[in-house]
Automatic annotation (TrEMBL):
SUPFAM superfamilies: AF0104/ALDC/Ptd012-like
Domain PPC per the UniProt entry, residue ranges: 6-145
A Pfam family of this chain: PCC
The protein's name in its UniProt record: DUF296 domain-containing protein
Top-rank taxon: Bacteria
InterPro entries (UniProt xref): PPC_dom (IPR005175)
Organism: Thiovibrio frasassiensis
PROSITE patterns: PPC (PS51742)
Amino acid sequence: MEYRSGSIKRVFTVRFDEGDDFLGGLRQLIITENIRCGWFHVLGGLREAGVVTGPKEPVMPPDPVWAQLEGARETLGSGSIFWDATEPRIHLHAALGHHGETILGCVRKGTKVYLILEVLIFELDGIDASRPWFAEGGFNRLTFDV
């Protein structure tokens, strides 16, 4: 285990509307506001999302199991923002439910908002970290810079 301490620098409250590209819009906001390190929460709905629901087997690197969700899904999630060398890496885990059936996974692509999605972003200060590619694991891993 490794850790660092820091403080909250800025806070953003964001609203995404019906049909918006959530991950694309969030990525653009991160770039525009130069959020290098942060944590966020989402609350609302998604009508489309490509979600990884886990590995096929618990090995490294993992072989992901994908689910393509369509239709209205109530959404509640939490994620982090760290950059690799050139771009932001968003890591979001969320529960997405419809009529009592819920799927939990890592939301990665193809996100379209259903009605509204509210996001609260906490930009962190004093934490020197990035998310470079971790070849052994086959994913971008949070790394504390010296």
